[in-house]
Amino acid sequence: MLSHPEWRRSWPWLAQGTTTRATDFAPDGPDPAGAWAALRAATPCSAAFQARQTHGTKVGVRGPMGPGLHLVGGADGHVTDTLGALLGVTVADCVPASIVAPRARAVGIVHAGWRGAAAGILERAIERITAHFGTTPDELHLHLGPSICGSCYEVGPEVHAALGLEPRTSPMPVDLRAALARRAAAVGVAPVRITRSAWCTLCSDGDLFYSHRGGDAGRQVGFIGLARDPEPHTRRDSRAAAPDVGG
């Protein structure tokens, strides 16, 4: 598992990261229940939340629940301030976007493909975490995790138009993490508190991740939670980029 190194140093109460293709979290994979059990065991969280993802904008507020994996109704994001709760989204090229509100001790995560990004899934999560936990956008920290990069993600003109980008007449690459960073900054997240992983799920060395465009049916999980134990056990993502909202 990879975790954001600066976040791990700053907030020992945080469990955050992205799994690799060493474990398949696809719902129809070989052992999704076992994969989630292993993830809970590897983090200091007892209850995990996962939803059927719809590429929409629904973000659920998760409260106290008993130990185990809790499958909730269709949603593409979760927020919580509950100790021991682990929030997860499955990805394989889409962006796992993690949010931390340090003063409020609240966290959130969304699954952001181009449809969700265009519809405002990240803005919705920011609104939910600020409205429910007494924080403000300028206090938030945002990390855009491993996903397909701006060089590999070639899409049609309709995707550029949906994301509000420069009009195109033929397929061209899109940097989805950069687009999400701009959208977050537009609703008040400080650019210096927005970071992007340098890992690409398609072209990074070592074949670390599942990639939909690479033909994989498997999925990794982006996760975030509030630890009961102050020592999360994920290894650091040494390729988490410095603050950057450029293209």
Structure description:
By secondary structure, the chain is α/β, with parallel strands linked by helices. The protein has a single domain, classed as CNF1/YfiH-like putative cysteine hydrolases. It is built from six helices and 15 strands. The strands form four sheets. The chain has a six-stranded mixed sheet with strand order 4-6-9-8-10-13. A five-stranded mixed sheet has the order 2-14-7-3-5. It has a two-stranded parallel sheet with strand order 1-15. β8 and β9 form a beta hairpin.
Descriptors:
247 residues, alpha/beta, 26% strand, 5-stranded mixed sheet, 15 strands
Short summary of the structure?
With 247 residues, the chain is of the alpha/beta class.
The level 1 CATH classification is Alpha Beta
What's the arrangement of strands in the largest beta sheet? Answer: 4-6-9-8-10-13
- The H/E string reads EHEHEEEEEEEHHEEHEHEEE
Alpha plus pi helix count: 6
Average pLDDT, all residues: 90
CATH fold title: CNF1/YfiH-like putative cysteine hydrolases
- The span between the termini is 27 Å
Q: Any chance you could write out the topology, listing elements then pairs?
A:
Blueprint: E1 2-3, H1 5-10, E2 14-18, H2 32-42, E3 47-51, E4 59-61, E5 68-72, E6 77-80, E7 85-91, E8 95-101, E9 106-112, H3 114-119, H4 121-133, E10 141-144, E11 154-155, H5 157-162, E12 172-173, H6 176-186, E13 194-196, E14 220-226, E15 235-236
Parallel strand pairs: 1-15, 3-5, 3-7, 4-6, 10-13
Antiparallel strand pairs: 2-14, 6-9, 7-14, 8-9, 8-10, 11-12
